[in-house]
UniProtKB/TrEMBL annotation:
Region (Disordered): 1-51
Signal sequence coordinates: none
Annotated keywords: Coiled coil
Protein name: DUF1754-domain-containing protein
One GO CC term, this protein: nucleolus
Coiled-coil residues: 55-101
Top-level taxon of origin: Eukaryota
InterPro entries: FAM32A
Compositionally biased intervals (Basic and acidic residues): 28-43
Organism: Lobosporangium transversale
Length: 110
């Protein structure tokens, strides 16, 4: 019972030791002259050149995007022309045409 024996208070781990808190690291203060020197050194060296990939679109892709933009503009113009009253009327009409999902189906005679 030696390792697990407690006389009250908080529980203790079997290994003994207890909880040790981590010490905070001291932050180094930056010297402004060193910062300026490193920035100047970085600016003076040219950045490494990486090959740039240029992706060109095919004629079909360009036509597709053009048609999509045209359709989007037409859709926006069409929706902008409707008043609120017309939009509500159209929504009500659609709701009336829908089958009612929660209705109990009538099955069998009677």
């Amino acid at each position: 019972m030696g390792d697990y024996e407690t006389t009250g208070g908080s529980l203790r781990f079997k290994g003994g030791g207890g909880i040790t808190k981590k010490k905070k690291k001291k932050s180094e203060k930056l010297d402004p002259s060193k910062v300026k020197a490193t920035l100047e050194a970085k600016e003076s060296t040219p950045p490494p050149s990486k090959p740039i990939k240029v992706i060109e679109k095919t004629a079909a892709e360009l036509r597709f995007e053009e048609i999509q933009k045209k359709r989007q503009e037409e859709k926006v113009l069409k929706s902008a022309m409707k008043s609120h009253k017309e939009k509500v009327a159209e929504l009500n009409r659609k709701l009336e045409e829908m089958t009612e999902h929660y209705d109990i189906p009538k099955v069998g005679p009677g």
